[in-house]
């Protein structure tokens, strides 16, 4: 049976099942982690079919629809962040790092590799850590009213961090050409530090990637067909759209968080770049 340990985060666990009903949370889910502890079968995601095996992990974003067809008895755990979790922030316990969690998820949401849905890992230890943390959250789930919010909070923080880190690894691995791989590393760095404008200056990026200050912009445009400045602004505006859609943050709050002078500055930039 599903249960919300934290309001608007749903934990579901199924043991040794061969039939899975359609999930009623699909239309109100913002982000989901699906872990197959055991069993084999296929999972149909947005009309495409993928096989799953023991220890397979999938991530889903808004509007994803999936159906599990088990071939052998299957045990799964799902952790679902509902859309309302990031809207009713005033009702959440003060200890929860809600904004940090949203940043991790939006990083995944705006990555091309999230379209793969099934997680791949840079190394075996990351996958082991992730499955252990999912099991830890599930153990607290079984304790019913005796669960430990500290364990759940920190486990979820590390789970999201591990997923975001390995999504970046997938982005880099998908670039087979060395030069393209370097571009991907620059892009990953921009995404990871998008809330820290000081780290995204041309001077700092040039130092970080051991390039001349007057060359990195030219290099970036040569390999992406867009200027470095425009790429950073466009990515920020993507995050603005995501936050307007899924959170209750005011325009002025979003502007401050993303390094704009004020809401008027953000508004003018948005109109200039997005029409």
From TrEMBL:
Task: Tell me yes or no: is ATP-binding among this UniProt entry's keywords.
Answer: no
Query: Looking at the record's lineage, which domain of life comes first?
Result: Bacteria
Asked whether the UniProt record includes DNA-binding among its keywords, one would answer: yes
Gene3D superfamilies linked to this entry: Homeodomain-like (1.10.10.60)
Gene Ontology MF annotations:
DNA-binding transcription factor activity; sequence-specific DNA binding
Q: Which InterPro entries match?
A: AraC-bd, HTH-like, HTH_AraC
Q: Name one Pfam family in it.
A: HTH_18
Q: Keywords of this protein's UniProt record, alphabetized?
A: DNA-binding
Q: Where is the HTH araC/xylS-type domain?
A: 184-275
Q: What is this protein called?
A: Transcription regulator
């Amino acid at each position: 049976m599903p249960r919300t340990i934290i309001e608007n985060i749903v934990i579901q666990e199924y043991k040794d099942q061969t039939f899975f009903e359609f999930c009623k949370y699909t239309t109100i889910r913002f982000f989901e982690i699906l872990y197959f502890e055991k069993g084999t079968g296929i999972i149909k995601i947005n009309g495409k079919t993928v096989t799953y095996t023991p220890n397979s992990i999938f991530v889903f974003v808004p509007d994803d629809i999936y159906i599990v067809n088990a071939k052998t008895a299957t045990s799964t755990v799902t952790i679902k962040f509902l859309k309302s979790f990031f809207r009713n922030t005033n009702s959440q316990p003060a200890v929860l790092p809600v904004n940090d969690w949203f940043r991790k998820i939006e990083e995944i949401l705006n990555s091309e590799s999230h379209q793969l849905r099934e997680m791949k890992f840079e190394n075996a230890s990351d996958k082991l850590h992730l499955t252990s943390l999912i099991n830890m959250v599930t153990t607290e789930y079984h304790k019913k009213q005796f669960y430990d919010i500290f364990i759940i909070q920190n486990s979820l923080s590390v789970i999201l961090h591990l997923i975001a880190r390995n999504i970046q690894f997938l982005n880099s691995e998908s670039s087979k050409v060395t030069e393209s791989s370097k571009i991907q590393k620059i892009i990953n760095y921009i995404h990871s530090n998008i809330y820290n404008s000081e780290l995204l200056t041309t001077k700092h990026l040039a130092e970080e990637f051991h390039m001349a200050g007057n060359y990195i912009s030219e290099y970036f445009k040569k390999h992406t067909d867009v200027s470095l400045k425009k790429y950073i602004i466009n990515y920020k505006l993507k995050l603005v759209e995501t936050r307007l859609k899924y959170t209750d943050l005011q325009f002025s709050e979003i502007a401050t968080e993303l390094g704009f002078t004020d809401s008027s500055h953000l508004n003018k930039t948005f109109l200039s770049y997005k029409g």
